[in-house]
Amino acid sequence: MFRLNADQGLKGLFIYTIFYFFMATGKVKWFNTQKGFGFIVQEDNKDLFVHFKDVLGGIESLKENDIVEFEVAEGRKGLQAVNVKKV
């Protein structure tokens, strides 16, 4: 388990360290390939943000209602899915 640490670096750049919490399974609620993000419904029925850079196999691989495995991490705006892959 870990937390997100943000330190302001040179010239106003932020460096983020992401700490992973656990592996989980869920279902793709929706994913917009043009905007590059979407949401996964977790087993506890809570929505979890997913960004295109965190989808293994490319963003075209995610479709509504797909079952996926992922790690939950703390991002800039709260928890999000990372290392997302279709089951």
From TrEMBL:
Listed GO MF terms: DNA binding
One Pfam short name: CSD
Subcellular location(s) per record: Cytoplasm
InterPro entries with a match to the protein in the record: Cold_shock_domain, CSD, CSD_CS, CSP_DNA-bd, NA-bd_OB-fold
Source organism superkingdom: Bacteria
Domain CSD: 23-86
GO cellular component, one term: cytosol
Zinc is among the record's keywords: no
PROSITE patterns assigned: CSD_1 (PS00352), CSD_2 (PS51857)
Membrane-spanning intervals of the chain: 12-30
Keywords of the record: DNA-binding, Membrane, Transmembrane, Transmembrane helix
Listed name of the protein: Putative cold-shock DNA-binding protein
Organism of this sequence: Pedobacter alluvionis
